[in-house]
């Protein structure tokens, strides 16, 4: 495939609001384009902040995808076998530094946590049952409830799995508090990677994670260079990946940071931007 003068051997893409619509579905046009690319021998690599078990069914149904980058690059899976082939967990000391620093916010009900362990996303029962109380917009409530497994005590769960965390998310309803916590994280620990795909959830993982790092690991396995890769995304957590790829494409619905990192902007997700860019659908 030749795009913008580049010989493309790999197509990497974020999922939500890039190839997956707000209702959780993939359009027929997008699926057709992905399957056509696979038939032409092009490697397809989904690169997501999602835990592996929460990947949408539409991705699971597509045959020919070898690898999946999950949890913002903290865990990589062989998609065909479901085997985790690479991962970096949050350090014990970093986890407890974060929990200690923001304990008063948690106990006051101002924040809650999500935990990604072994490809599964968990959340406190109250949060999973009532996400809107923690700042989750109505349009995303069904997504949280369908992808997060509830636990009775999220702090106890985090302690129980303190050496197995692919990702720790802080969910805060108050925008000012969210920004304050985001600013304080580097003061609490300098050994984590932080990013975000939505304005109410701060995503924290090991310092050696990130979508660009995860994609780089997969490209090495596939013997493909970044220059031979086109990457699509819409969120702040996609920006580094778009800069890393030979051709970075931001969706029209992307954040300003994501667009600034891209080489070009394509049509929005709901208008099949990826499909139109690749094959002119």
UniProtKB/TrEMBL annotation:
The keyword Hydrolase applies. It comes from Eubacterium ramulus ATCC 29099. The keyword Hydrolase applies. GO terms for cellular component: cytosol. GO terms for molecular function: magnesium ion binding; phosphatase activity. Keywords: Hydrolase. This is Cof-like hydrolase. Transmembrane segments: none annotated.
């Amino acid at each position: 495939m030749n795009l913008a003068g580049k010989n493309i051997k790999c197509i990497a893409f974020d999922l939500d609001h890039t190839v997956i619509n707000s209702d959780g579905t993939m359009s027929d046009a997008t699926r057709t384009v992905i399957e056509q690319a696979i038939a032409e021998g092009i490697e397809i690599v989904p690169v997501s902040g999602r835990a592996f078990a929460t990947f949408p069914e539409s991705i699971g149904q597509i045959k020919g995808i070898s690898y999946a980058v999950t949890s913002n690059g903290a865990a990589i899976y062989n998609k065909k076998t479901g085997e985790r082939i690479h991962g970096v967990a949050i350090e014990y000391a970093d986890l407890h530094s974060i929990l200690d620093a923001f304990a008063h916010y948690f106990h006051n009900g101002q924040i809650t946590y999500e935990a990604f362990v072994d490809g599964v996303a968990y959340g406190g029962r109250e949060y999973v049952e009532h996400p809107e109380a923690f700042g989750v917009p109505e349009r995303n409530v069904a997504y949280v409830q369908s992808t997060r497994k509830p636990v009775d005590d999220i702090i106890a769960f985090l302690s129980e799995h303190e050496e197995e965390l692919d990702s720790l998310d802080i969910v805060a309803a108050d925008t000012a508090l969210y920004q304050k916590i985001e600013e304080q994280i580097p003061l609490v620990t300098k050994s984590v990677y932080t990013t975000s795909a939505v304005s109410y959830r701060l995503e924290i993982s090991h310092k050696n994670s990130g979508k660009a790092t995860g994609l780089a690991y997969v490209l090495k396995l596939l013997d493909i260079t970044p220059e031979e890769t086109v990457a699509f995304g819409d969120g702040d957590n996609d920006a580094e990946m778009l800069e890393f790829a030979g051709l970075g494409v931001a969706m029209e619905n992307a954040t300003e940071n994501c667009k600034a990192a891209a080489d070009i902007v394509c049509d929005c997700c709901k208008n099949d931007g990826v499909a139109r860019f690749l094959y002119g659908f």
